[in-house]
Amino acid sequence: MRRFSYQRAQGPAEAVLMATAGAADSHSKAEFLAGGTTLLDLMKLDVMRPDTVIDINPLAAAGYGRIELNQHGLRLGALVRMADAADHPGIKSTYPVVAQSLAQAASQQLRNMASLGGNVLQRTRCTYFRDVSYRECNKRNPGSGCAAMSGFNRIHAVLGGSDRCIATYPGDFAQALIALGAAVEIASGSGNRTIPFANLHRKPADTPDKETNLLSGEMIAAFLIPAANWTRRSLYLKVRDRESYEFALASAAVALDQQNGIVRAARIALGGLATVPWRAMEAESFLRGKPVNEDNAKAAASAAFADAQGHGHNDFKIELGKRTLSRALQQAAALKI
Ligand code: FAD
Ligand code: SF4
């Protein structure tokens, strides 16, 4: 591991100030440290090379570790541990897709340690990105090429890729946030700003190294999920190589507002299949005003993958993704609530 300076922030303003100072010129880089389960791994692998690491864990006491649930919605501080949100009785009953997406992620030990803010900012599991002996990786080494295009790309994305990068966004929780129309509160030197969570991540396009729309020194403060008619009838279905402690090959976060068996609104996000947490708007539109029977669920899933593109080893993910979404929709429609 390379040398870095470690600092511990006692409050949000101090954290942002430290981060801004730590990234004062184009050669220096500062990273926040929450649970450290992504950051420290990637520093040991020499993929991430921050000059300054700012420990933000003391901010948990300043509201960043708080879960607030009321009739207006759910507010989750960025330092809430994954396990605490996954096990929260109110979240399990009112926002099941949130609890399920977290409960099915990583392992119990990791969930005890890892924060929600760190979770949404975790980096891709693309082997070529995580192994610095490969020079060709536009995300890690801009302009160098993409080893995955002609290499082994079984876990890579079939949606949202570009000719520069097809790395999959690996997290689970983000899909629940997308499906439920969440917003993210961001702390910066000039105060807090709130943006739709859907605008946080960037598709790779020509600049796969730029993964989010966070500005230098900005920090995630909280996630805001509005109360809505679809939150209770929601679930997260994750398909992976083994049933535990594994990233998604395909996943679907589904929330339905359904009356007398007819969909008034469907909210759908896909994971493990795309370069960013992926909202399936075509499938949502298709289902509006219809019952979720097998035929409609399959047709909605086909609509979601109309623009999907395989790259060889990952071709199977298109069919797997359709089946995952179709099954998730039928399970959500059948929930007794
Ligand atoms: P850190 O490692 O502390 O931070 C991660 C990144 O986010 C860093 O760049 C850091 O600077 C930045 N950051 C952290 N907090 C903030 C903030 N508030 N504002 C701005 N930037 C911030 N995840 C899944 O979703 N599903 C899985 O199945 C899964 N399986 C896993 C299996 C293994 C073996 C491992 C090691 C991880 C797995 N993960 C999985 C990923 C894991 O969930 C993440 O590593 C974890 O959630 C990251 O949270 P953290 O608090 O440890 O983040
Ligand atoms: Fe790098 Fe993206 Fe290509 Fe993976 S898919 S090698 S992360 S450029």
The first-level CATH class of the domain at 234-333 is given as Alpha Beta
* Shape verdict: globular
CATH architecture title of the domain at 234-333: 2-Layer Sandwich
Low confidence ranges: none
User: Count of DSSP E strands?
Assistant: 12
Strand line-up of the largest beta sheet: 4-5-8-6-7
Helix content: 25-40%
Structural class: alpha+beta
Bound molecules: flavin-adenine dinucleotide, iron/sulfur cluster
Tally of helical segments: 13
- Estimate what percentage of residues fall within beta strands: 15-25%
Stated plainly, the CATH topology of the domain at 234-333 is called Enolase-like, domain 1
Head-to-tail CA distance between termini: 51 Å
